[in-house]
Amino acid sequence: MTKLNVSNPKVWVVIGFGFAGILILAEVNRRRLKARNSIKQDLGAFIERIELLPFPQPPPPAARLSLSGLSFAIKDNIDVKEYVTGFGSPAWKRTHEVATKTAMVVTALLKNGSTCVGKTIMDEFGLGITGENEHYGTPTNPKLPSHIPGGSSSGSAVAVAAELVDFALGTDTTGCIRVPVAFCGVFGFRPSHGAVSTIGVLPVSQSLDSIGWLSRDPSVLHRVGHVLLQIPSIEPKRTRCFVIADDLFQLCNVPKQKTVYVVTKTPKHLNLGQYIASSVPSLKGFIEQSTIQQNGMSTLRALSSVMFLLQRYEFNTNYEEWMKAVKPRLGSQVTNHIAAPVTLAPENIKVLYKVRTEMRVAMQNLLKNDGILVLPTIADPPLKLKSRKGLSAEVHDRAFALLGIASMSGCCQAAIPFGEHDNYPISLSFIASHGTDKFLLDTVLDMYSSIQDEVIIQSSASPLPDTNDSIDASELLKEKGNAAFKGKQWNKAVSYYTEAIKLNDNATYYSNRAAAYLELGCFQQAEEDCTKAISLDKKNVKAYMRRGTARESLLFYKEALQDIRHALVLEPQNKFASVSDKRLRKLIS
């Protein structure tokens, strides 16, 4: 190697460029590391951090604004003045100017005291339910980091679940709020179609889009709803009639013990697919006559196919010109969606809207003003990240059989976390008629505390046999009582056993209620229940033992000893009875 001539100016120029290159490379690496750490910090939920401060609080003695102290995030299809609305697409963001106005929904939240802290990642153009965005990455599901968060309001759900904000705004077209809240274990509310202003929000499909919100707390869900829906604070309370969609629960592997049985003791039952088939006549032309769908799902599959045709038709109407002009590089989900053209004739397009109208009328006739349809939010657990198989046809069909109901009827729907099964979040949904949003929000707020208690009881209960919905109601109540007893909730156990006795005069139910009464120190009631149990079943050992305990506590030792000896005759090896026998004989002597 030749020696460098340090006196040559060209050498110093080369050295200078080399040193500058090292500095630039170091700075690039530093920025990449900072960006990576930032993404880890917010789980990739935000595409852009912003700060929109709330409007000033009114001076005392006026009450504080209803959302004071709360923070929120918004999906990246919602306008904020002086920011570009990205729509989950770099190409869209690059070819559009900053918004000149802030969306009405955001302004309403700021006026009521909350602070906006950022815009969240979404599936590209809102066309997807996985939460994956090939351009910006996939937010990390806080509940299941190795699984998808669900979409298209993925960032909003992650921000709420990770406690980065108190609530978030999203949009729901074909399940875009309901899926991520189910996968991330939080609350979501899709309001009645048209109930919340869409001014300043980029549409996907105007006939299906709803602006909704997500939270961890039912009271926050309720408060945000009152602001956005402009609901009067005073409205008469109504009775609630729960309707269980039995056919839809057959799509879900979660035991009914952890879902349906938690909600209510006396629901109505319905095969929703059959009801829709008879109530939505324009749907008949879309039902596949050549195939027999399992569980009678052909009608609901047809409903979801109409939903997708309508979505594709309106999306293409909105954005076809831009797509042709810009020719953006699209993610595979969007490419597949746009590649399937809508080939229906104009008169058949009208049929899509007719199905939607008939569907709303059918749900109104079913639920009226006091009905609540209960169904799983989603049928399957979230896929693993970067799953090679992707969303299979079966998973797709099960998901949209459930999601199409509110989308096509325009009804309001609340998705509610119901604990876990096999380490996956459980989410149940309540659907109410179009326009009864306050009734539904009130129901969620009023019931959630008791739902939580029931979820805890059922999580520790023994699995119930799968009897295809024919399980005896009294046996179900007995099992609930047993679970409450095991959880040391004696009063609740008494309540369940009492309900079971009303349905069936059964010795075991009386004996079990007596055990709960013993724990509560209600010895006379325990004695009476055991006497009734013995009259129904002369060989009920537990009833003799428990009556003996009750009589001993009431200081009737001789009568107690008689009961214990009856138990020993029936079960000579009973160690507890032998010990009680010796103790009582000693007390009597």
UniProtKB/TrEMBL annotation:
Pfam families, alphabetized? Amidase (PF01425), TPR_1 (PF00515)
Spell out the residue ranges that the record assigns to TPR repeats.
Answer: 507-540, 541-574
Q: Which InterPro entries match?
A: Amidase_dom, AS_sf, TPR-like_helical_dom_sf, TPR_rpt
Return the PROSITE patterns for the record.
TPR
Looking at the UniProt entry, the stretches that span the membrane are 12-28
Among SUPFAM superfamilies, the record links this protein to: Amidase signature (AS) enzymes, TPR-like
Protein's UniProt name = Amidase domain-containing protein
Give the organism's phylogenetic lineage. Answer: Eukaryota, Viridiplantae, Streptophyta, Embryophyta, Tracheophyta
